Description:
The chain has two domains: about 1-45, no CATH class; about 60-190, CATH 3.30.1330.60. The chain has helices at about 1-15, 60-65, 70-80, 95-115, 130-150, 175-180; strands at about 20-25, 30-35, 40-45, 85, 115-125, 160-165, 185-190. The chain is built from six helices and seven strands. With about 190 residues, it is of the alpha/beta class. The longest helix has 21 residues, at about 130-150.
Amino acid sequence: MRALQIICCVLMLVGCGTRNIRSTPPSAPIFQKEPASAPSTVSVSVPVTPTVAVPVQSETVIANSSPDISGLVAKANQQLLDVFFGYDQISLGAEGFAILQQNAGIIRPILTASAEVEMIVEGHCDERGSAEYNLGLGDRRTRSIEGVLVELGLPMERFRRISYGKESPQCTDETEACWSRNRRVHFVLKLR
């Protein structure tokens, strides 16, 4: 009885030989419609080796496979510019906005390339005023910058804000030129 079942199966397979089955490279689609000149039949392509079709979703897929994301982060950190503020100010001028646009152009591809990269937005102030006031002012500056960066298309969930107030100055002279260098927002890309 078992032999009869096997013979019937073989005969059925041989009898199905009238379908147009051909072998194609693995990259060919599984079902392919014949050209318009042929009758409206559907041919089935059988890949030689089993494959799994993986569609390329975007440049992100390619970038995520980059083994040197830390090198890209280091290079980007060297290119990012600080945004400076007037005394006791949180609003941006035209120059500050232009710097933010430039920084966004540097930051965007890095954040797109790896989900492991975050952007730290540091708020800094000059030495005048109390420590508490300057911590609050530094935080307001980072929030102001963050809002503009979101408008420029960067993902807010990848930002981390830190206010250093007057605790991390670039310059320690008691002059307006020095104080103006300390009133800034600084950007750092970092692997999590």
